[in-house]
Amino acid sequence: MKQNAALRRLEVIDKELVLLSHILGVLTWDQEAVPPRGVEERALQMGLLDRNMHELVASDEMGELLSDLGASDGNEGGATSLDDRSRGIIRNYFRLWRRERKLDSGFVQEFSETTGKAHQVWVRARSENNFSHFEPVLTHIVDLVQQKAEAFGYNDDPYDALLDVFEPGTTTAEVEKLFGVMKGDLLDILKQIGEKEHIDDTFLYNSYAQDKQEFFAREVLDAMGFDWERGLTGLATHPYTISLGSDDIRITTRYTEPSVTSPLFSTIHEGGHALYEMGASNERTKGTCLASGASLAFHESQSRLWENMIGRSRGFWQHFFPKFKALFPTQLDHVTVQHFVAAINKVQPSSIRVNADEVTYGLHIILRFELERELLAGTLAVRDLPGAWNEKMETLLGIRVEDDRVGVLQDVHWAMGELGYFPTYALGNLYGAQIMDTLQQEVDVGTVLSSGDFSPIRLWLDSHILQYGSMYPPKELLQKVTGAPLDTRFFKQYLTNKYVESM
Amino acid sequence: MKQNAALRRLEVIDKELVLLSHILGVLTWDQEAVPPRGVEERALQMGLLDRNMHELVASDEMGELLSDLGASDGNEGGATSLDDRSRGIIRNYFRLWRRERKLDSGFVQEFSETTGKAHQVWVRARSENNFSHFEPVLTHIVDLVQQKAEAFGYNDDPYDALLDVFEPGTTTAEVEKLFGVMKGDLLDILKQIGEKEHIDDTFLYNSYAQDKQEFFAREVLDAMGFDWERGLTGLATHPYTISLGSDDIRITTRYTEPSVTSPLFSTIHEGGHALYEMGASNERTKGTCLASGASLAFHESQSRLWENMIGRSRGFWQHFFPKFKALFPTQLDHVTVQHFVAAINKVQPSSIRVNADEVTYGLHIILRFELERELLAGTLAVRDLPGAWNEKMETLLGIRVEDDRVGVLQDVHWAMGELGYFPTYALGNLYGAQIMDTLQQEVDVGTVLSSGDFSPIRLWLDSHILQYGSMYPPKELLQKVTGAPLDTRFFKQYLTNKYVESM
């Protein structure tokens, strides 16, 4: 087939796959509403769509199209004469096709149905603090993931096969090395902070009316540039961002946490993801596979950059604190902006990852990375997981886990079969710090923040990162944006400036 | 292919089609939440699923399977040696296949996308009272429907082709004859009622707290036997029932109407539909195409039987009025149960179909039936529709339509491309009265109602109608249940008893 015709056909299939993935998004969004006995069929529905998508990706036709377009292991993007957009689409599908064709449809459907049903099992096990209820299905999932890794294949480590799904081009050895350095940095900074004075943050745990919290969160999203014509916010047990369409991007939060800033920072975090999804879908990319993040770590770089580097900064609160205090004058009586900023940046090891401060967060990830590798290698059995978890929490963070709800059962990822996902969260912090370092050279971030008009930051991120979606491999994009490969020293420098030198 | 193998294969395809139709249900349920710019893609998503379903139904494979199973025009259910369940599945698919294979995929997708987008256009036109905004898309839809009718084919009247989709086996000539008799009956009864004394129902328009209304509606649904493990209720602009899964059946209502009983009766109405969906999905039928109503008129017979014959009956309120009054003592001060029952059964011609009383309701349907036939025949242009509507409203109901919002723009059906649907509503009244007549011979309905435990009614309906789903053609099922073909005299008798003789 001629290259042009092959490309046109690939784009037709791509368009259909994007629609199907958005439909899957609708099923996911609605999942919490499903009445008890409907849960089982919802998993079958998702399994069917997953199977249909798999069959489109793994088809012989797809293999032929990609071959006609010149894609190969050494040249994933196909013919170099093609433009970046076309090469981006080809690369995405070559990687998917290479992987997916190694799985048969039955396996894909079983994987989807098993994880679909596991969700409710995990929810119940967590609420009842009963790991043994979750153990059988998690054992099944780990078995399926092992099969998947073997099917995908790898050079050095089975974990490579999983990691490459979420963070294209990054190996386990690289992560191990980066995390080794990062761990030393974090423990070092933690030690230095430990010697500082105690910060009183009890006022964050006062009672704050939810409607006012929602009003404030909306104002912050406005300032970030969240487009209400293309998205909305909702409530859910777990905060997340999801695309139900190119112009239908939704974020959730929960108001069940005791601290007033927990839902707020979760909104800013998800808002960062939403801005990426909104920016990645534009005239050039809309409706194609390119209209999403370059990788999960890149996605997380945006959410954590907005949540922590912007949302927990002094400049941000110089603008927003008077508004916040006007909403909650009683709760914040006598609290100064300096005190408030110190409180929301309080560093203290704790058991829950999503509530962890910036310094200890990485240690939560290292713990999961290490446990996942052992599960995958078969050197740790699922039944021994809670014990291993608690032991590592004590070694790494000095935390004695009270029970499994705030321990091994806290995260949804394993119930979803997503082993290999967690490292991208910590990589996101590293990417974010490196990107912020470049951004600060070109934009006067401090002034922008205290002005309350964040558009110069958003526009910079948009033109340097977001607009490309997944057109370039993550490593290439980072090089393009920051002029350097990933380096842990930017994150170390950021934390040191913020926590050791300034506070 | 051997019959057994063909049947097994048909059941696999059936299972997939049912899952896809439920997925389409999820997309529909979520439709009101979609942010403004996301509306267009949602229509594309629905178009894709419609096309995929069409391709499964209209495939050569389907034709071969049905032929192997002995299905033909003269014998839609296939080999008579097969059991009723198998023959029901075969009949459903033979009818679908015969129709759908006459449409190409492109047409199906265009139809779905056009009507998907038309929804928002209609919403806006209605809210702005601007028919001309809706006119172009409705013209396009009527054109597509005309093409569809021609493609499906018919013997006497193009309207037959549409009607047969919604009410299998019923012809336009039959409807015309039934409606002719019904029209005479209704006008006659209306005249007799007109001579009676005026009923004061103004207390229904007092202010009633929504949370208490919801509480009461939930109690009524409990009494009806609504299974909360398999369903839920929600709010929407338009009340409807939808299956998002065999065990995920949802109904909506709205609390924007001025009368307190409008949302209540709409809940009971949709509750009747939901009971049908719940009952039709059982051990024998779950996950198959049989797990739904025998026809739309059969479905409507259940909703209107519960809403009007039960919900607006004296017996029902003998049980429920004390509870209702306890919730709203001020609003119902001095109102007796007799007065209340008279008020909720007040007959008065009005412009809105869904709020119409039992007597004038049928006239609203006749109006639509007549206009649809003219639209389809091309003897009425879409631009002349509002004028024709208003003229008929005056002739039939003596109502001068104030504006198009409460006139030609009031219903969603035409925006959905569903010409041929309306007659099933009035047929539902006829079916319902005939079924109730039989039910009353076997169950002491009056005693059951005032006991507040409706299970004898529900169980009778379940064992005589619901459990079969769409296993039998509607005419055959009616004969099986009531021992007679459809006859207007039952509905006439019911209305006469209730409105002329008793009140």
How would the blueprint of this fold be written?
The structure is a homodimer of 503-residue chains.
Chain A: H1 3-30, H2 39-57, H3 60-68, H4 84-100, H5 105-127, H6 131-152, H7 158-166, H8 172-194, H9 210-224, E1 231-235, E2 241-245, E3 248-253, H10 261-280, H11 296-310, H12 314-327, H13 337-344, H14 358-377, H15 385-397, H16 423-442, H17 445-451, H18 455-464, H19 474-482, H20 489-502
Parallel strand pairs in A: 1-3
Antiparallel strand pairs in A: 2-3
Helix pairs in contact in A: 1-2, 1-3, 2-5, 5-6, 6-7, 8-14, 8-20, 9-10, 10-11, 11-16, 12-13, 12-17, 14-15, 14-16, 16-20
List descriptors.
homodimer, mainly alpha, 20 helices, 3 strands, Neurolysin, domain 3, 2 domains, three-stranded mixed beta sheet, 503 residues
